[in-house]
Fold this sequence. Notes:
The protein is built from 13 helices and nine strands.
Amino acid sequence: HEAKQQHHGFRRFSPDTAMESADRLTLLGDLRRALTDTEQFTLHYQAKIRLDTGELVGVEALARWSHPTKGPIPPGQFIPVLETTSLIHPFTERVLTIALQQARGWLNSGHRVPVAVNLSTRSLLDETFPDRLATLLDATGVPGDLLCIEITEHTVLADPSTTIEALNQVRALGVKTSIDDFGTGYSSMTYLKLLPVDELKIDRSFVADMVTDPSSHALVAAAVDLAHNLGLTVVAEGVEDAATADALNKLSCDTAQGYHFARPVPAPELAQRFLAVLS
Ligand code: C2E
Ligand code: MG
Ligand code: MG
Ligand code: MG
């Protein structure tokens, strides 16, 4: 958690920071080259499951970077670096393009699979974003309601009024909106009331131990009720066992994601398991 918060707060200069800067520059150079390559960035897809029926209700696209010499580098490591520069814009464009082409591919084989994409603060707050999104939807011929944009509370806190405006523009395209990692960002009740979102995702840190920790259970229960009372769909993140899935279902939580149901996998695997098609 400490490392995560550092990206959003101020950092004091220290010899460590200087070392890190050299690494960051190398990483940025590699990322810049990766963006000119069509192979290095891919998406994996994690199933989102309806808890009462076990049905697939959509997928979340998660970026994967296969570095030519270092191998796989997790998004938690390279996305915060991308976000410090304007390279985040072509990256977001790449992710959205792959995700929408995939949604189109599934549509072509007869499956309406809603796809959620994580959006960095900088991308959402970029004033050209809604137009670019509209262009991508047009180009791929994917109906807006098959796309969901996930943002975190950090984005909201960075600039609440621009966030609200941007989310409204995104929704005007029919695209769904979601608050990711809910509970970790100190979002105030006021923002929740004002935010034009369709879905709330309860952070894994609360879900993970809800069966054994009564206070986590209470927080998850409260988040489910809060979401429902605001007319939002609620997703539990990071469900790793049947007991947790059961407990969530008892709380009337709508949907869930987690290793208990499925890990993030390449599109063909997702389709094979959930769509019963072979491509
Ligand atoms: P997130 O959006 O909250 O995604 C959920 C993360 O939890 C994913 O990690 C997923 O693999 C992992 N996860 C899912 N189920 C379980 C589980 O049952 N147990 C555990 N321990 N973990 C689970 P991943 O793929 O490493 O992504 C980390 C974060 O990186 C994401 O968190 C998201 O904030 C960011 N991210 C990923 N792809 C993109 C992207 O294309 N664009 C942007 N801006 N951010 C992205
Ligand atoms: Mg997410
Ligand atoms: Mg999350
Ligand atoms: Mg997360």
